[in-house]
Task: structure prediction
Amino acid sequence: MAENEEKLTETRHERRKRVFSGVQPSGSLHLGNYLGAIKQFVDLQNDNDCIYCIVDEHAITVPQDPKELRKHILDLAALYMAVGVDPEKSIIFVQSEVPGHAQLGWVLACSSYTGELFRMTQFKAKSGGKESVGTGLLVYPVLMAADILLYDTDIVPVGSDQKQHIELCRDIAIRVNNTIKKTFVVPDGRFMKEGARIMALDDPTQKMSKSNKNIHSSIALLDDANKIKKSIMKSVTDSEGIVRFDPDEKPGVSNLMNIYSVLSGESLDSIEEMYAGKGYGDFKKDLVGVVQKALAPIQERYNEIRYSEELLTTLHDGAEKANSIAERTMKRVYDTFGLGVPAKIVR
Ligand code: TYM
Result:
């Protein structure tokens, strides 16, 4: 076994599982982000070493207003903490504060193929119909692979729209491990059963998304009680009038049931039983209550944290901790690829 391989195996045995995930600071977070990803962040932090990143370098793959971006970085950090990510247990930091992400991104770009990047469905969706497309949008998944591999990550909690990106990350890691030297831990994605794909309220065939122009297509985590009510009461269902889980035939009602189930803890079966013989009106009215009750404490805590010094301290501490892990990985990567000045004279 190569010396490097031994080291990797040894550290994997010694440590708890390493969890890494990231969210773009590009506008207000919605229920899809929360139920698909961020809720898992909180659940995982007691039994694992968790690192949660605000991926500002990913955000600039599309044009951003610099002042707004800085605000959104702090908004997202405060939201992480408001939903329960605890800086005592997890590392919270901003991607651009750790140079290793961009460094490793470049190295991995040299180990990936343009063909596999052009095949990414998110690239196709974001670039479709545009005359010119930024290079950053194409190499986006390589930077995401760098984020993950930089921390020897075992588990990546994300929504199901990120499955293809995780697969690519695994492919790149395996490629480097097999063709040059065992360097990277190969990670696994972790997807929630019910929250992995929350759909738009106005069109349950599309995923809930930050970029949808109709404000009632999503519920933002910071929406007030009235907006929550309006968006849910307007949501698209079907004409059957029966609260039944059937994502193919009844995507609208099934999506609402998913949201109800994850936020209230009630199973889908028991929701069907609770609303047997009742119409969508009663169900939607109760769902309004469930969502308002879940979001109120998050919003209260967010308002306490967002303008506090604690927020900046958390991000500075987080970057320091993340950097010390990242620097170790980058030494290993430079060694694998033969980059930089060697420790001693070589012939
Ligand atoms: P982003 O910022 O688009 O979304 C953040 C997280 O929310 C999930 N998500 C959803 N889950 C369920 N239903 C939805 N409608 C929905 N919409 C979004 C996403 O799957 C994601 O988990 N590429 C990532 C950010 C990233 C990252 C990483 C993630 C960059 N580097 C490294 C993990 C590891 C993204 O654009 O997420």
Summary: The longest strand covers residues 18-23.
